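pinned: reference chain
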Amino acid sequence: QVQLVESGGGLVQPGGSLRLSCVAFGFAFSDYSMSWYRQAPGKERELVAIIITPGVITQYAESVKGRFTISRDNTKRTLYLQMNSLKPEDTAVYYCNAQRRMAYWGQGTQVTVSP
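pinned: its C-alpha cells
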C-alpha cells in the first residue's frame, strides 16, 4: 500500500516552532524527490520546499527562506520540515509529496499560527 502520512501539525503562537514529519510506505523512498506544499483557506496550493534526490539539493519558497528547513532520512523513510519563527500567514494544511515517474500525496496536517 502506497501511503504518505504527515504528522506534527498543531496550534502554535507567532514566533514558535513546529516540526512536521512524513513517513512513506510502499515505494522506493530514496529514489524520489520529496516536497512540502501548503494550502490556506481560500488560496491555491503552493510549493513550500523541495529536497531533490539524493537529498543534497534543497529549494525553498521565498516566503519561508531562512525560517524553514527541509530534510530527509532515507533509512527511516521519513521527510521532515522544521518550521521556526512561525507567522500567522504560515497557517495552512501542509502536504507531503513524493515525485518521480509517479507522484504521491499525503492527506495533510493542519498548522495554525495564532496568538
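why pinned: The mean pLDDT is 96. Residues 66 and 84 are 9 Å apart (CA to CA).
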